[in-house]
What does this fold into?
Amino acid sequence: MKKFKKFLIFIFIAILMQFSFLFYVDRYKLAYDSVKTPYTANNKDKQVDKTPSMTEKAKIDISIPDGVDKLKVSSDGRYVGYLLDNALNVIDTKEANKKSIQNSKDSGIVEEYSFLKEDMVLVIEKNKDKEQEKPFNLYYYNLKNGDKIKIKDNGVIRKNTKITAIECSPLKNLVYIKCAYNSSRANIYKINAQNELEKLETKSTAIGKIKVVPHEDKIIYEDSMDNKLYVSNIDKKFTFKKGDKVSLLCVDEEDEIYIGKFEEEKVSGIYYGLMNENLESWKWMSLKETVEEENLKITAKGEIYVHDVLKGQMKNIITDKTTDYPGKFVQIYNNGIVSLSQGNLVKTEFK
It folds into this structure.
């Protein structure tokens, strides 16, 4: 009987110790782990990305030196680029490091660049020797591993040409380049899948603004002399009333095209619709007040903002929400505003 009582006591002590251990694990250890390693609602096996957000500027100090040219930010806000001392400098705000992409020895200075998808950037170098047949050298640069992919121009770009626009798809690596060869004439070139430059056949050489259609291998461009817009590779044009002044503003990530209508040199309203629709079926949005075209900003998501430069703020014309930013405006990106304040780049998310 005594042995049986001792056995019961040992069992009770063992159960008590096990319960105490499980209570500690549940109350403290698992609670700590749940804070340290959060999980998404849709996938409990996937850890939440702890990358510093755009507004966590105290964690990453992005200093921009004086005298830089062509300061730009990638569409997702990760990369910051600028030209300085004949080189392209790119800052990775996620990894907090900087790369300097120097021009090649047999080339000239970096003339232009554009951020693409998947950590790629298009770099355009202008040849030092103006007598060379090729005015530019073009290549893709991989910001992760430093690889360069040369683009063959096949002699299609004329001498004494100036690059006036680069348009890239945020969804596909579609790249179009507008080159002007005098004050009123220009050509559009495409970088094809073989990394070769090819000239597009256009309905006009009096080409104004160009915008890529993200889901299509097409570009929409203005005929600056005839008040028309054309779509490349198909027999499609948008003709506006005689006397109406319009301007191609944007094409969003859903392929919606935005065209501003002017009254006395300011935008008074916006036509918007899809490429395969007739202009008559497009929607019309009248602005409460006329706006300078440069102060009308449209995001990739199709959100429309009016920029008040003096107040340092942007107002969403649909929600009426206002976002303030410090310093001097640089550009917008997918989720917010990029500005330069006291030598530092600041990223402010839209409200």
